[in-house]
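Q: Could you write out the predicted structure for this multi-component system? I'm mainly interested in how the pieces pack against one another.
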Amino acid sequence: MMFFLLFLGLVALVAIDMPIAIALGVVAVFAVAVTSGLAALPNTALVLFGSTTKFPLIAIPLFVLAGAIMNASGISRRLIALASALVGFVKGGLAMVTIGASMFFAEISGSAVADVAALGSILIPEMKRKGYSTELAASVTSSSATLAVIIPPSIPMILYGVMSGSSVVELFVAGVVPGVVGGLLMMGMAYMLAVRYGLPVQEAFRLRRLAATFREAAWALLLPVIILGGIFSGWVTATEGAGLAVLAAIVIGGIYRGLNWQRLRTAMIEGGVQTAVVMLLVATSALLSEFLTEQQVPQQVAQAIVGFTDNRYAVLALLNVFFLLIGLFLHSAAAIILVVPIVMPLVHAVGIDPVHFGLVVTLNLGIGQQTPPVASVLVTACSVAKADIWEVTKVNVYFIAVLAAVLILVTYVPAIPMGLVNLFYR
Amino acid sequence: MPQSRIARFRTGFGRVLEAVMLALIASLAVIVVLGVGFRKAGAALVWYDEVASILLAWLTYYGASLAALRRAHIGFPKLVESMGPRLRRFVLTFRETMVLGFLLLVAWAGWKVMGILGGTTLVSLPWVPARVAQSVIPISAMLFIIAELFGWYDASRNGTGNDGEGATR
């Protein structure tokens, strides 16, 4: 009953546009005051402080900062030129370039919003010039940016890892194959749409041009090698890899001569604000999680669902529907922080590998970034393209269908996310 | 207070928070890189993970105040936007009262905890009082309150109940 009232209170506060982080804190404090009395309230400060001092979470501001620095140093243009030389010769080449560049950029930034803001401002106007409809240009940029949350490094995966107690490195490795499969399927969809709408090729394939763009982008391509190579080989932890990414981004930015103090300053402040927004959610949700755990709510949820079915595929189907619905209304970070601690006992009870489940959650919430009314990535793409969200969604459904297909593959063919993890870490 | 003085105070307040953010994020990056370097050189820094974690907490709370000033916290504005002006003003007043009440409670709790911590120090740096690390909670709660008051002032001035220019929630 208490859980139901808390949920209702939370929904009501969020509905009146209270910041979700504060709404979580308000209902948690109210619940603690009612059940444990006012004397328990000073504990609020200790929980708020302690929940933000988790060492793995330091990777979040550092990856955000590395991505922002690389973007400020002109890396986007180099990645686009390379992707254009690589796949621009196919019909609808510019859409493929967008998807290819998104996959490269995802290996650096870890944030889909950063991805769409960095690439969309260059590629959307270019696509419009080449005869793409505004809606198609916005939808291909938006949906391909979602690859950033499954291709490592990924901020939602770091959050999931901390919330579920799973290895962030294993989650990163699990994202590699689904990310590549998703990218290739999206390119296939872009090709089909290009044929249907008679869209042009971007440029003829020339080996000399490919070599030149590769040389230009070589330093930028070194960054994912440093980040992922260091983390996957165990040479550094995910957090330390993020620190190295910042250092490498500054060095590479210097080599490209694209970095100046003003850009760096803006990138650092923006990165800090983005981090703080997510971390405040982590902090206040810890208040609520502590209360729910004391009341054994996660265990009760697990028992209720296991009483209904203990088939892991049926439970995965239920959780998929649940996360897809949540993704319609909640930002991915908020959804992970709120829901993952509650469903983890259920995941363990039916024998689902937490790393496998992490990919399922991440992909679900990636789809949520594309589905209005709350669709952070789609909104950014539409803002860059100056397009109506609902008109873009009519085209974007094709790409959402691709992401849904990847989700089904990841959910029901565990070898796709877990093959590399089992090969190297188990 | 005249409008221009409020605008000047707001700009100065934002600049101070930005300077704090810059210092914190740069320190965090430098400390993590130094930590890796020293560990690989076989001379691990004992204080590195504790100090880096505290910097993350400071980044979170001072950054949250800056995010509040920029109306950048994640919310769901659709329903409020669809309300009539009178209902919207009522909802805004109720919402801001709840937010300010929560922040005042956090500031009070943070102040209480600082008293309770007494002479406790950090584990890896025994000459640093734990109160210094924990001070972020009451201080940032007060900064957050100032940022919220600016937002409330904007919303009251434009008479719509909206959060004013630059709202990104």
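A: Regarding packing and overall arrangement: The first helix of chain B runs from residue 3 to 40.
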